[in-house]
Design brief:
The structure holds 2 protein chains of 2 kinds.
Chain A: H1 13-47, H2 56-62, H3 64-68, H4 81-112, H5 114-128, H6 132-143, H7 146-171, H8 175-184, H9 188-225, H10 232-241, H11 245-273
Helix pairs in contact in A: 2-11, 4-5, 4-7, 4-9, 5-7, 6-7, 7-9, 9-10, 9-11, 10-11
Chain B: E1 5-15, E2 21-32, E3 37-41, H1 48-56, E4 63-68, E5 71-72, E6 80-83, H2 95-106, H3 112-125, H4 141-154, E7 159-163, H5 171-188, E8 191-196, H6 199-205, E9 208-212, E10 220-225, H7 234-237, H8 243-265, E11 280-285, H9 292-299, H10 302-305, E12 310-315, H11 319-327, E13 333-337, H12 340-345, E14 356-364, E15 367-372, H13 373-378, H14 383-392, E16 399-402, H15 408-419, E17 429-432, H16 438-444, E18 449-453, H17 456-462, E19 466-471, H18 472-475, E20 480-487, H19 488-493, H20 495-513, H21 518-525, H22 572-584, E21 590-591, H23 594-601, H24 604-614, H25 639-645, E22 654-655
Helix pairs in contact in B: 2-3, 2-4, 3-4, 9-20, 20-24, 22-25
The chains are: A mainly alpha, B alpha/beta.
């Protein structure tokens, strides 16, 4: 609560900008250098005799049209990378939201009830370890169609971290808060919204953040297996079967970038909602 | 008036994860009146928070019930609001929202506007209106605690429960909050129970302090009424005359709990050797010049000479500590005031008679009555001067210190005052203070004078804060001072050890009485483990010493007598005198079976055997009849008649004191 005495800022505006750049530079230069070195090494490797995969220069040359025209749409499966990514993202969004709703509800249930927790925990622990790809055949067999099967795979992959983290978050509500609720005789709904959810929120968000990564992971795997749909996963598979290795590598960059952006967005959301406590 | 809160014989047993159980609280009963402020104090783990939780209803007792206004407590509820130790504010809500959560839930029957005004009022009351919209994370610890208190008070609980509310705060914040809490409690007439481990906090805030013993099976060890008038202020309560005695009482209790734990853990073996039943003895003493025989017996090898080669001298801060440890068996023997064996036997401690026995008088004399310098400046040089001075200042109560109700200091001081026409309980106030704390209390003005053994009279004179108005020379020359005290069952269980102890101490007394040794003894006594002072304050063996003046020698010092013909023999006559004096002031009842009791107290045969075996023949010696400075001769044949003839006395009661038949302690 003490007032921090700041030194009066006598620097000129230009000086301030210079300071700003000086501040950012140490954060930007090292990754730039690292990326450059990585590209150089990659290029060098591709020049070695017997190398099969293209180097970065060749990749850019071969996929120029795709890079420059992400929005083209020739109907069918022949669409620009933007559309491919968007289709995948839509699937992720649907499956993920479903997973979040079901996961948080079940998590609260498991977290509040000792019996439920004891009964369901072994099942969860078992199902959690099944890899996303293993669900694909079952999903296809059960749901017959590609689209719902893909959604199911995302759902079943993303739900576990959400569910388990929510349950832990609810179990970890400090006894002090529970005592406050007991002494005040708070109603169930008040307890839920004023204490349980706010208290478990940091845990829930940790689960959501892990889940979004997993969901993105799962969709690629699922799409690769499911032929004939628009999506970045199938795009890779299609390119591979046609021998367009450069396109595969380009799609890889897209996937990585999208995954990273999703994670960062989630982190941002987390800091926005879960205020400093 | 019916009790507001009543805790009725509750036990609490916790199951442990390993399948066992932990008996936390045992048989706790407590009643709280409406508007009362109660503190629970005790060491960590004594179950004080558990007790609070059971009143709150957060936890239920295993046995017994807790009632609030004749209603059994079975679950928590807002009429028993808790201020939790770590604030327990919801971090995602602002200060106002935190309080609103409670108000909206509990006072939901009130219109919204009224609820808002209650919230505002409570935020203002704790002085946090500027921070009402901040989340708790932005507040300091003290502010958070204020929010917690405001939240608790906003719903107008019948009972406020505080669990170490200020424990985590710095001293300054704590002090301010304590004042604030007192103000609020007085304004809204709150009944409160507080758990604390801070003695000063307990005294400042409470009407009663409940002291809990250490767990497992914690019980209420003691209950203290804090009769400091309200409104109280943090800086003023310390000036209340009984503040420090109450404080030291609580600290004594807490220390005793700590000690108990250590002693319980100690191995309780009895080492027998050389035909003695027990050679590992713990003997208690209080740091005074009079402890010389014990110290000499230890340092000059008299204990070892008689086979007691594992004697440990235990320095106790007060006579209270000596009696407690003797009764509980942590001490084998102790140097005690001459009246203490009788006092314990007659049930002076908690009304439960503990048969004691004494077979050796270790010292005589060595006491004095010291008055503060202001009396010296008034020209008070005699008892009648003192009375005149008291009559002139009836507007205030004069407090005199003495060391223990059973000590000769108390009895002689009372006798001296009464002989001068001053009633020791009505005209002045007598208070118990450990010997070593007399000088500092006199200096601080807590007391106006005292009667104590050396070196503490000399200390006051040399420091110029007081002077000796009377010594043994003018009260009772040669009165018994300190005796060897053991429990009767101990003496019966270890008769040979007892004899060896008497012999060793008797020889040590002889050594002390030899003037050639006095310089050496003074040096030994000054050591930190014994009296811890400088040789100038220790007077042994130079009777020319004049001690009692600030400016000029006024009175000759009646120095300690350690040994001499008839000096060490326990005397039934003297014990009878002590008995009548203690009965005179209502300290103990006068026993109808006084002859039997005297015989059990004074074990003359053990002394005679010891003296004979040492070749100190005293057969046929008789001490002269007891005559004190006022000329009254004490008649040993008719003590009750003597008591009835006294003019100044308290209510005397005569009763049969039934003692268990003598039985040896089961080791």
């Amino acid at each position: 609560m003490t007032a921090v005495q700041r030194r009066p800022n006598t620097n000129s505006f230009q000086g301030a900008v210079g300071k700003q750049i000086q501040k950012i530079l140490p954060n930007i230069v090292p990754p730039m250098v690292a990326i450059a070195i990585f590209l150089v090494i990659w290029q060098l490797f591709s020049w070695t005799p017997g190398a099969v995969l293209p180097g970065p220069i060749k990749v850019v040359e071969e996929t120029k049209t795709l890079i420059l025209n992400p929005f083209y749409d020739n109907g069918g499966l022949d669409k620009g990378l933007f559309w491919q990514v968007l289709a995948s993202l839509q699937r992720v969004a649907t499956g993920y939201i479903l997973a979040a709703i079901v996961g948080i509800s079940l998590g609260v249930l498991v977290g509040t009830s000792k019996v439920m927790s004891k009964a369901l925990d072994p099942i969860f622990q078992f199902l959690r370890t099944v890899p996303p790809l293993a669900w694909v055949p079952i999903a296809l067999a059960a749901l017959q169609k590609n689209e719902p099967a893909a959604l199911f795979v995302i759902f079943i992959t993303a739900i576990w971290p959400i569910l388990i983290n929510t349950a832990v978050g609810v179990q970890q509500i400090p006894q002090d808060y529970r005592n406050v609720a007991r002494v005040l005789k708070l109603s169930r709904s008040k307890f839920f919204f004023k204490i349980l959810i706010p208290s478990a929120l940091p845990y829930i968000f940790t689960g959501l953040r892990i889940a979004i990564g997993l969901a993105w992971l799962a969709i690629i795997a699922a799409e690769i297996v499911m032929s004939g749909i628009v999506g970045i996963g199938f795009f890779i598979w299609d390119a591979y079967t046609n021998g367009y290795v450069s396109e595969v590598i380009l799609a890889l960059f897209y996937i990585g970038a999208v995954g990273m952006i999703l994670d960062k967005l989630m982190a941002k959301l987390q800091t926005l909602i879960v205020k400093e406590q | 008036m019916p009790q507001f809160v009543s805790v009725d014989h509750i036990d609490k047993i916790f199951p442990l994860s390993n399948g066992g159980t932990y008996f936390a609280l045992k048989d706790i009963s407590l009643e709280v009146k409406k508007g009362e402020f109660i503190s629970l104090i005790g060491h960590s783990g004594c179950g004080k928070s558990t007790l609070l939780n059971m009143v709150a209803g957060l936890d239920l007792p295993t046995e017994g019930i807790v009632m609030l206004e004749d209603e059994k407590i079975t679950s928590p509820g807002p009429e028993r609001m808790v201020v939790f130790q770590n604030y327990s504010l919801l971090p995602w809500l602002t200060v106002r929202q935190n309080i609103a959560l409670a108000v909206e839930q509990v006072l939901s029957y009130l219109p919204k506007a009224e609820q808002d005004s209650i919230i505002d009022h409570n935020i203002n009351m704790v002085g946090l209106s500027h921070a009402a919209d901040k989340p708790p994370g932005q507040l300091s610890g003290g502010m958070k605690q204020r929010v917690a208190i405001a939240r608790a008070l906003s719903i107008k609980p019948k009972l406020l429960l505080l669990d170490e509310p200020f424990g985590a705060l710095d001293a300054l914040t704590r002090g301010n909050l304590q004042e604030k809490l007192m103000e609020i409690c007085e304004e809204s007439q709150v009944t409160a129970i507080m758990v604390t481990h801070d003695v000063d906090e307990a005294l400042l805030l409470s009407d009663r302090v409940i002291m809990l013993t250490n767990g497992p099976e914690s019980q209420i060890g003691q209950i203290m009424d804090v009769n400091i008038p309200r409104p109280r202020h943090r800086l003023e309560v310390v000036n209340h005359p009984s503040y420090y005695s109450m404080r030291s009482e609580i600290i004594y209790f807490l220390n005793q709990q700590k000690k108990d734990k250590k002693l319980k853990a100690r191995s309780n073996t009895v080492t027998a050797r050389y035909g003695l039943e027990k050679v590992n003895l713990e003997i208690g003493f209080v740091p005074l010049t009079a402890c010389a025989p014990l110290v000499v017996a230890k340092e000059k090898g008299f204990f070892t000479k008689h086979g007691l080669d594992e004697v440990k001298l235990v320095r106790e801060p007060s006579w209270r500590g000596i009696t407690d440890d003797l009764v509980r068996g942590y001490l084998d023997a102790a140097q005690v005031p001459a009246g203490m064996p009788l006092w314990l036997t007659l049930g002076g401690r908690d009304g439960k008679p503990v048969p004691m026995t004494t077979s050796l008088t270790m010292t005589r004399n060595g006491n004095g009555i010291t008055l503060g310098k202001k009396f010296y400046d008034q020209g008070v040089f005699s008892l009648s001067d003192f009375k005149k001075s008291l009559l002139q200042s009836t507007d205030r109560v004069h407090t005199l210190g003495m060391v223990h109700p059973s000590s000769l200091h108390n009895l002689l001081l009372r006798y001296w005052l009464a002989a001068g026409g001053i009633h020791p309980d009505r005209d002045v106030n007598l208070t118990t203070i450990p010997p070593a704390q007399m000088v500092s209390n006199l200096k601080a003005g807590n007391i106006d004078g005292y009667c104590v053994g050396e070196p503490w009279n000399i200390r006051a004179a040399t420091e110029g804060i007081g002077y000796t108005i009377a010594t043994d020379l003018e009260i009772w020359l040669g009165h018994p001072g300190k005796v060897l005290g053991v429990r009767e069952d101990w003496a019966l269980a270890y008769p040979n050890t007892h004899l060896a102890l008497i012999k060793a101490l008797l020889e040590a007394c002889e050594y002390c009485a030899d003037n050639q040794n006095s310089e050496e003894i003074r040096q030994i006594l000054c050591r930190p483990e014994y009296v811890d002072t400088v040789p100038e304050y220790i007077n042994i063996g130079n009777p020319e010493q004049y001690t009692c003046s600030i400016d000029q020698p006024l009175r000759q010092y009646a120095h300690h007598q350690f040994h001499g013909t008839g000096l060490n023999r326990p005397s039934r006559t003297e014990q009878l005198w002590i008995m009548t004096q203690m009965a005179r002031w209502g300290t103990v009842p006068f026993p109808r079976n006084w002859v039997e009791i005297l015989e059990r107290i004074c074990n003359v045969s053990a002394f005679s055997t010891a003296a004979r075996e040492l070749g100190m023949l005293e057969i046929g010696y008789k001490r002269p009849p007891i005559q004190l400075f006022d000329g009254t001769i004490f008649n040993t044949d008719d003590p009750i008649g003597y008591l009835n003839d006294l003019e100044i006395k308290s209510d005397i009661h005569i009763a049969d004191v039934i003692l268990d038949s003598p039985r040896a302690k089961v080791a």
